[in-house]
Write a structure and sequence with these properties.
The chain is mainly α. It has 28 helices and no strands. Helix 16 runs parallel beside helix 18 and helix 18 packs parallel to helix 20. The protein is rod-shaped and about 195 Å long.
């Protein structure tokens, strides 16, 4: 059946188909001015659905469908056409999602909705795509007649649309149908037509698929050398294309070929290689085939425990899928296991179940195989006439389908039946047929051809591996050189970093030492300045006390002279002396005081003048006394003014300095 690769290619073709419509739909949007009718956004949702898991994809496809339906009520005719095509893609995508989840009825419902829309557009390509998907579902359900009709109908529309890829897949689908119903000759014709289309159109993937399918048909016919040749061509191309899953199908088929030739060990090797890839992909469809084939191989090796386990796994997945072909094959293998255990009745029952399923799907070649097995069991049970009847029916079907192996086995069974019946002539006649078919199928030349083909393939693979190893060796050497260079550079950077850190540390240490020396010098200088300041303050205080004492003395003298004026001593002379003393009292004291004050509080007088120019010189002197934290009495004694006049002066200073009454004047002046 169609491989995962076919779905991938269809998806790529589907995406490419959408691109021409994006511009058209955007143009329609600008004309309609409707919000929410953006075909590009619907396409993005569909693209997102393709990249997500099945459950999430389902909701995204449904969202795209609903959005497209909402948009169909608006826009121009061309705009509706573009939205309709997008809606078709959404329906097909949702149908494919159901198809991959084995929900075939839901898949058909969505394909039918897409087909109705495609017919309304009268677009050959869209119609072909929808009908082709119907054929795919019918093929999976083993409804071969309906599948064949749909493939042929789809082909007609693909031809009208001049779509080579679509034609290829129709031929491939028809080839699968013909193979399944046993028309091997017609299957080869269909596959060769598909191969011709693929080669002419340069489709490498499709070419490889054709070789693989041809190999299956040749194996079915018993032409093992052609089968091996086709498989090797297919697997080579799939590996070149990095398609591991498709390559695993070829490995599985080569395993079948070796099993048919009686070499289960080599068959197991190929089956296990194939199984490893399929398990990694979690492909249940392919797992059924792999498990069933492994059961066949282990049964041939008489390892019935492994055979039963793998067959059980295969049957479980086959029942889940509902695929009649898979179920019939599993029943056949189950019958073989019971036959080996000599449980004849149960074996015949499974063979009959297998035969009926093959009959329902029209798989004549497989019907012949089932009848041969029943005939052999009937013969072993002594039911000779019944065995002859089953064997003859098997021979007739095998001749119709051209399956040599089934014809050989049917003739062999008939020869044995007639021999037991005592009809030596008839037995000999059928025995001659057996020998002829054996020569045709199992001749040493054919088997040698198979070996040579595989040997050539292995040699080719070894040559490729050798080339790859040589390239890897060169790359590794280059990588080692690069690594060594990087390590050298890293080491150099490390050394430079250590040197830089050491230099920085050394400089920081030196800077810290110098900083300590400078700090120490500053502290010494500050200490010296503090000592000088203390000395100046002591001098100023001493000078202030001296001036105060001198002023007190002078004041006392003035008072005494005042008393003398009352006596008869010349009052004019004494008054003249008083005036001179008063003139010398304050100015001389202030000049000496001012020099000392400015040394202790430099800039104070300058700031007073700049900030409060309205202050008088007497008021500035008062501020200086207050700055020295002198009280009113001390200032009065120093200046020779009364305490009341000093208080009045303090009030004027407070007002000019804008110091509120609740604030301390001394503190305010100390901040200047």
């Amino acid at each position: 059946m169609r491989t995962f690769l076919s779905d991938l290619i269809k998806s790529i073709r589907f995406i490419l188909l959408l691109l021409p419509f994006l511009f058209c739909q955007e143009k329609v949007l600008s004309q309609s001015g409707k919000a929410g009718c953006d075909s590009a956004s619907i396409t993005r949702i569909i693209g997102q659905a393709k990249r997500t898991s099945s459950d999430t994809a389902e909701s995204l496809y449904k969202k795209a469908i609903q959005k497209a339906k909402d948009c169909l009520g608006s826009g121009s005719r061309n705009g509706k056409k573009g939205i309709t095509k997008t809606l078709i893609k959404a329906y097909l995508g949702l149908g494919l999602n159901y198809y991959q989840g084995l929900a075939y009825d839901k898949a058909l419902q969505n394909y039918d909705a897409a087909l109705l829309l495609a017919k309304s557009l009268d677009d050959p390509y869209e119609i072909a795509e929808c009908i082709f998907n119907f054929a795919e579902v019918f093929l999976e359900q083993s409804h071969y007649k309906e599948a064949m009709e749909k493939y042929q109908e789809s082909m007609e529309y693909y031809v009208k649309a001049n779509d080579k890829s679509g034609s290829f897949w129709c031929y491939t689908g028809m080839g699968i149908v013909q193979k399944q119903i046993g028309n091997l000759k017609d299957a080869i014709i269909c596959y060769n037509k598909a191969l011709d289309v693929a080669i002419k159109s340069g489709q490498k993937d499709e070419t490889a698929i054709c070789y693989n399918n041809l190999g299956n048909v040749y194996r079915k016919r018993g032409d093992f050398s052609k089968a091996m040749e086709s498989y090797q061509k297919a697997i080579t191309q799939f590996r070149d294309l990095k398609d591991d899953v498709a390559a695993s199908d070829c490995m599985n088929n080569i395993g079948n070929l070796y099993l048919d030739n009686g070499d289960p060990f080599r068959a197991l090797d190929y089956y296990n290689q194939s199984l490893k890839i399929v398990k990694a992909k979690n492909d249940e469809y392919r797992l059924i085939i792999r498990y069933k084939n492994l059961a066949d191989a282990y049964a041939d090796l008489k390892d019935y425990e492994n055979a039963e386990q793998f067959l059980k796994d295969a049957l479980k997945l086959a029942e889940k899928s509902g695929d009649k072909s898979f179920l019939a094959s599993c029943y056949m293998q189950t019958g073989k296991l019971y036959s080996i255990k000599n449980d004849r009745d149960i074996a015949i029952a499974y063979y009959n179940k297998s035969y009926k399923l093959f009959e329902q799907i029209g798989a004549k070649a497989e019907q012949a195989d089932a009848l041969v097995e029943i005939a052999n069991l009937e013969l072993s049970g002594g039911e000779i006439n019944s065995a002859i009847r089953y064997a003859k029916d098997a021979l007739s079907l095998a001749k119709q389908t051209g399956t040599l192996k089934a014809q050989l086995e049917a003739n062999d069974c008939l020869s044995n039946c007639y021999e037991k019946n005592g009809d030596a002539k008839q037995a000999l006649s059928f025995l001659k047929e057996v020998i002829t078919y054996k020569d045709s199928i199992y001749s040493s030349d054919k088997y040698r051809t198979i070996e040579e083909i595989e040997a050539g393939f292995v040699q080719h693979e070894l040559k490729k591996e050798n080339t790859a190893l040589t390239q890897n060796s060169l790359l590794q050497k280059q990588a080692i050189r690069t690594r060594n260079s990087i390590l050298f550079l890293l080491l150099l950077c490390l050394i430079l970093s250590i040197a830089l850190v050491w230099l920085v540390y050394k400089r920081q240490k030196e800077a810290k030492r110098k900083s300590g020396i400078i700090k120490q010098q500053h502290e010494q200088k500050i200490e010296k300045l503090n000592e000088d300041l203390t000395t100046k303050e002591r001098e100023l205080t001493s000078k202030t006390v001296f001036i105060n004492q001198k002023n007190q003395l002078l004041e006392r003298l003035i008072n005494e002279l005042e008393e003398l004026k009352k006596n008869e001593i010349s009052g004019a002379a004494i008054q003249h002396l008083q005036v001179q003393l008063k003139q010398e009292l304050a100015p001389n004291a202030w000049k000496e005081f001012e020099v000392q004050f400015n040394e202790v509080h430099p800039g104070f007088q300058t700031r007073l003048i700049e900030q409060y120019p309205e202050l008088t010189p007497a008021e500035r002197r008062l501020c200086s006394f207050i700055r020295l934290d002198m009280n009113t009495r001390e200032i009065s004694s120093l200046t020779g003014h009364s305490i009341k006049s000093i208080e009045v002066a303090r009030t004027r200073v407070r007002k000019k300095l804008s110091v509120p009454h609740e604030h301390n004047l001394n503190n305010s002046i100390s901040l200047i």
